[in-house]
Amino acid sequence: MKKKLKFNSRAIHGGQILDPAYGSVMTPIYQTSTYAQTSPGVHKGYEYSRTHNPTRTNFERSIASLENGNYGLAFASGLAAIDAIVKTLDPGDEIISTNDLYGGSYRLFKQIFEKYDLKFHFVNMENLDQVSNKINNKTKLIWAETPTNPMMNVVDIESISKIAKKNQILLCIDNTFASPYIQRPLELGADIVMHSATKYIAGHSDVVIGAIVVNDEQLYNKLSFIQNASGATPGPMDCFLTLRGIKTLHLRMQRHSENAEKVAIFLRNHDKIGNVYWAGFSDNKNYKIAEKQMDAFGGMVSFIPKDNSFESAKKIAENLKLFTLAESLGGVESLCCHPASMTHASIPPEERKKSGLVESLLRLSVGIEDADDLIEDLNNAIG
Known about the structure:
Number of strands: 12
CATH superfamily of the largest domain: Type I PLP-dependent aspartate aminotransferase-like (Major domain)
Radius of gyration: 21 Å
Number of domains: 2
Strand order of the largest sheet: 1-7-6-5-4-2-3
CATH topology of the largest domain: Aspartate Aminotransferase, domain 2
Number of helices: 13
Strand content: 5-15%
Shape: globular
Helix content: 25-40%
């Protein structure tokens, strides 16, 4: 039996098929919309690039390998991937979601899918009773982020998967913040893993792409049908760029995590900073869960100025030089985001406040620059 490769090797070789035409080491960009057939319906596995494309196939195989899953699916964005997952449901079905989640996910759930008679419940999933109390015979999907965006709460994947399986409910984990280098939800009992692969997977802020990984063949076939029928698929260049990014995922995530730890500790010790949110603090209420299900604590840190004012947060954001004030995350460069006005603006203020997302909160995507330079930039900006 072939020995299973370790993660660092899978990042480079996992699921990859060498180009059969010329033996190209790197996956070629198959920039074609259609494929020649030798007879009606007789082809080499590819007939139209919305349905399949060899560059996309290699990306899908790669992301499946990283998550230790059987099947990967690529989409034009993370939201397109979420859209496909929700489309597996029927009118009248109910979904339980984390109350602290990406604003685009909330917008898709509430403003697009609720009008098709799907009902969403948003709960604090750190409290398992809140999940169990919302389950009824109409509940078909549990949707969780961990760490959550932007409060960095940690959800116990294994415990929620037991609740889901007991009630025959699908569990999907948005693994964007962690990446498969840090966390592999399928191994902990999840049915679906979703990535905004735009972020850490691609890693260079130059592509928008999404991905899903599953183990169950029937679920894969259902999602694959939706992928083709709805057509929200990425082009071959996007898949090529993401494949290239994956080859350094392990190296980047090591540095992201190392730098974020130093930044989080610096912020926590600063006399002008109040709460700091990072999954790796040992006094976090769910630290033991994080330590158990994560191999590192990732590159995301959120914080609030000590005076808890938007004016102070705005000043810090505007004074940063090395950190760029921008949406998104997971690129090699460090970014600062103001969630209330940027990534989470579509969530009503009263709902944001329930999860602790106040106007004064800033979210950092800590890049792979020198940590001392990042800390100096923050220190200067805080003043």
